[in-house]
Amino acid sequence: MAMKKKSSAEASGSDSKRPGIHDLWTDRLGAWSIRALQVLLLLTLVSVVVFALTQVKLVVIPVLIALIFAAAASPIVVWMRSRGVGRALSAWITLLGGIVVLGGLVTAIVFAVEDQWSKLSDSAVEGFEQLKSFALDGPFAIDQAALDDAWNAVIDFVTSATFGLGAIQGVSTAAQVVTGILLGVVILFFFLKDGDRIWAFFLLPMTGERLSRGRRIGHTAVRTLGGYVRGTATVAAVDALGIGIGLAILQVPLALPLAVIVFLGAFIPLVGATVAGILAAVVALVTNGWVVALIVLGIVVLVNQLEGNLLQPVVMAQSLSIHPLVILVALTAGTILGGIVGAILAVPIAAVGWAIFKTWNEKGDMPNPDPVASK
Question: What share of the chain is helix, strand, coil (3-state, %, to 5)?
Fold first, then answer.
C-alpha cells in the first residue's frame, strides 16, 4: 500500500514537472517560433499584395508614374500658388508645359531620324557586309553554310505563325500603353491640383501620434521622390550632353536620338546609361568603323566615371542614400515584376521605403499643408 502511494506521488510529481502550453510558447524556442510565424505571415501578406498589384498593372503603373512626376513638379506648383495662381490653373500650366517640352523633344527626334535614315540604312548595310566578311575571313572563321542557315532561320521565324501572333500581341500591348498614358496624364493632373488634399483625406481617421506619423510619411515620400527624379534628371542630362557632343563631333548618325536614349537610360541606375552608351558605340561601329566606335566607347566610359565619382555623390546624396546592392536587388525584382517600367520604378520606390523607415519613429509633427496649398 505504501509502495502504491509512493508510485502515485512520483507520478503526480512527474506530471507536475511536465511543461504546459504556456511554458512551451514562452521559453526561448517558443519566442523564436512565434517570431518565425510572424515573419511567415508578413511574407505571405506581402506576396498576396504584390500578386494583386501585378494583376492590375494597367492602373498601378500609371498611378506610380504620375505620383513620381507630381512629386518632381511640386516645387513649380507651390511656387505658382505662392504667386497667387489658383490650384487648377497651376496644375494645367505645369502639365501642359511638360507635354509641350516632351512633344518638342519627340518631334526633334523624329526629324533627326527622318533626315539621316537613308544614310543610316546604307551604312548599316555596309557595316553588316563588313561584319559578315569578318565572320567568314577573320581569325574565327565561320562556314558560309552556317551563316545561310542562321539567316534562313530568321526568315522562317519572321514569316511563321508565331511571329504573327507576337505581332498581334504587340498591337494589344500598344493599346494598353496608350490607355496607360492617357490614364496617367489624368491622374497626374489631379495629383498636381489636389495631391495634398488627397493625402489629407486618407489621414482623416487618424489622430495624435498616428496623424503625426502620417504627415511625416507624406512629406518624406514627396521630398524623396522629387529629389530622386530631379537629381536623376540632372545626372542624365550631363551624361546625354557629354556623349551627345562626342557623337556630334565624330559625326555619328542619329546623335540626338542616341543622346536622348542615354538620358532615358540613366533613369535605370547602374546599368541604364552604360547600356545606352554601348548602343551608341554599336551604331558608330556599323556606320563609322572600328576606330570611331572605340573612341565613342572611351567617351562613354569617361563620362560615366566622371558622373559616378563626382556628380552623382553630390546630387543624389540626400535622395538616394541606399547601398548599391539594395539597388541591384530592387532592379532585379522590378524587372521581373514589371519589365523595363518596373526597373525604372523599383529604385525610387525602394528609396522612399527606406526614407519612411528611417523617419517612422521620429518625434515631432510635420506642419499642416502650406496655407498657399489650400487655395
Answer: 85, 0, 15
- Cβ atoms of 311 and 317 closer than 8 Å: no
> Are 268 and 295 within 8 A, CB to CB?
no
CA distance 172 to 202: 35
202 contacts: CB under 8 Å, gap ≥ 6: 214
Cell 507635354 locates to 99
Using alpha carbons, list the distances in angstroms from residue 231 to 52, 236, 316. 32, 9, 6
- Angstrom distance (rounded) from CA 52 to CA 49: 5
Mind listing the pLDDT tens digit for each residue in 86-131? 888 999 999 999 889 888 877 877 776 666 666 666 666 666 666 6
Model confidence pLDDT, tens digit, residues 20-36:
666 666 777 777 888 88
Maximum Cα–Cα distance for the chain, whole Å? Answer: 113
pTM value surpassing 0.70? no
Q: What is the pLDDT of residues 42-57, one digit of tens each?
A: 889 988 887 887 777 7
Residue type, 251: Q
Tell me the C-alpha distance between 269 and 228, whole Å. Answer: 11
Question: Which residues, including other chains, have CB under 8 Å from residue 330's CB and lie 6 or more apart?
Answer: 346, 347, 349, 350
Mean pLDDT of the chain: 76
Place of cell 500581341: 169
Residue pointed to by grid coordinates 527606406: 354
